[in-house]
Amino acid sequence: MSDNWVVQNLENALETWNEKLAEIWTLITQSPEQFKGGTIWNVVKDIHGAVQAIGLGLLVLFFVVGVMKTCGSFAEVKKPEVALKLFIRFAIAKGVVTYGLELMIALFNIVQGLISSIMTAAGMGTATRTVLPSTIVTAIEDCGFFESIPLWAVTLIGGLFITILSFIMILTVYGRFFKLYIYTAIAPVPLSTFAGEPSQQVGKSFIKSYAAVCLEGAVIVLACIIFSLFAASPPTVDPNAAAVSMVWSYIGELIFNLLVLVGTVKMSDRVVREMMGL
Fold it and tell me: Using alpha carbons only, how large is the chain's radius of gyration in Å?
């Protein structure tokens, strides 16, 4: 690291971003069972098991209500084809509630396979580091004390923006895990609605919403890959320009790309929901 205090400001901000990006890359490739050593997952599983009993009770309720709304009379229920249809619906709904946790894990693993394929296809097994161009480092180090004052102000503001955006990014990824845990914990209740034909739309919407949360990881990975490619090709720096102009041009484009990245990640939920028609 350079001994110049202005360069250090920029390098410290970029190092913060690189650390958060590496953490994001690690978190995206983790499953809820692995996150934080599995401590949270064990509690969520216990809650899921407790709620499952309530879900089985609601299963019977939704089934009875569904039969009453779809069948005109009890005599219609006695028909073999109707009775068989109701039995199959009840059996499937009970299976979905009983093995809902396994089904959700399977769906998550499918999406994780998609994320791994995206990383492999992009040739980015790890996060790409953003490094301050040597041209800018040299220009800053050649400046005198008074010339360094406006540079310090520019790098201070730019570094602050980069640090704030880094934390917004990591909070978004942590928020995805919170949603995964919440969906998993209460899953038996919405899944029990599959027992009744009039109420099954609630269960379908729940599955779609959970799939959307899982797919947010793919959108985040794609956004980070695209940003890394932008960052790997820094703006052309005019060697004849003043140092403050060079730094301002570099920081301005970097912050713009970061804003686009953070905006895309923050809207990943909306993007996926629009793709799935939710």
Answer: 26
Question: Is 100 exposed, middle or buried, given 0-12, 13-18 or 19+ CB atoms closer than 10 A?
Answer: buried
Domain holding 29, by residue range, is 5-275
User: What total of structural domains would you count in the chain?
Assistant: 1
List Cα–Cα distances, 167 to 27, 161, 162, 227, in angstroms.
14, 10, 9, 16
Produce one character per residue of 120-156: b if its CB has 16 or more CB atoms within 10 Å, e if not: eebebeebbebebeeebbebbeebeeeebebbeebbe
The tens digit of pLDDT for each residue in 163-209 reads 888 888 888 888 888 999 999 999 999 999 988 878 888 888 899 88
pLDDT along the chain (278 residues), means of 10: 71 82 83 85 92 89 78 64 78 89 90 85 70 73 70 78 83 88 92 86 89 86 78 62 71 77 72 63
Q: For residue 48, how many C-alpha atoms fall within 13 Å in the half-sphere facing its CB?
A: 22
Q: Which residue has the tokens 């609605």?
A: 193
The candidate with the shortest Cα–Cα distance to 192, out of 60, 83, 76, 88, is 60
Can you list the pairs that 33-39 forms with residues at least 24 positions away whose Cβ atoms lie under 8 Å?
33/105, 35/177
SS3 state of residue 14: helix
Rounded to whole angstroms, the Cα distance separating 114 from 159 reads 34
Regarding pTM above 0.90, the answer is no
Amino acid residing at 104: M
